[in-house]
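Async update (no meeting this week)

Hi team, since we skipped the sync, here's where things stand on the single-chain job. The sequence we agreed to prioritize is pasted below, unchanged from the tracker. I ran it this morning and attached the output directly underneath so nobody has to dig for it. Comments welcome in thread, and please keep replies under the output.
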Amino acid sequence: MSYNILVTGGAGYLGSIMVPDLLAAGHKVTVLDNFLFKQTSLNHVCYHPKFSVVKGDIRSAETMAPLLKANDVIIPLAALVGAPMCNIDPIGAATINHDAITMMLKMLSPAQRVLMPTTNSAYGSGAEGNLCSETSPLNPISKYAIDKVAVEKELMEHPNAISFRLATVFGMSPRMRIDLLVNDFTYRAVYDRAVVLFESHFKRNYIHVRDVSRVFQHGLNNFDTLKSQIYNVGLSDANVSKWELCDRIRIQVRDFTFIEAQTGRDPDQRNYIVSNKKIEETGYKPQFSLDAGIAELIKGFTMIRNSVHGNV
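Output:
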């Protein structure tokens, strides 16, 4: 079955993978994005007759109202993502990550479907070996996670909603983000050959960006079964520490060196092991391993280097 789908923030890291996949599946897709980063990540789908794009702000009721009315399914990706970005612009983070979603939910009819990415960073910093499921207590640390927890609570009051608590995403995308942990460490391995780790024993879970797109397709195709539920989405064999992640990268970048800092503290205090059993029991399985993602990133970083203020 095909749907009319509105993807907010569709030109971002997740959206620029997800939108072509949705079009390939036969859906009509409208993207709303403010193109804050001047990205051209959807150039390759402009030819498609079922693709349309609107430049605008999700905080504008005047912009959102006609778009919401015209679509059956809403995938709200637009956000200021990550703790550092939210700390730089806390007002923007609050209005985009929380207030705009609250407004959107109030404007929807009960019949409209919402599939939304939230975050497993909501689990915060648990005891060592702490296994988190969807029923575990939430302990969000960053403003990003706090706002996502609040939004998820409101989202689940909508009768036709699914929340996907995403693990830390990795992999190449037309709108690339080098700041994500696997991407960042692999980039440093390729170009610096070294990284200094803070609290290297802290663990978290990971998921490939293409598997994020796949879980949204899974949600669309099995909506009646999955709706009104929260699902962790990550690689069950990739609950790894920062040190273990670097070990995995060094297998492919042999001269990569990493050391533990003797002083200092990582501002991101997340530390948890996540169970993805609930989503796996619905028939969803990730296809892209952590090691395959590292190999992909190494190839990608052959083409990408942040060298705006340098000669090489």
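Quick observations from my side:
The domain at 4-170+206-236+274-287 is CATH 3.40.50.720 (Rossmann fold).
The radius of gyration is 19 Å.
Reply here if anything looks off.
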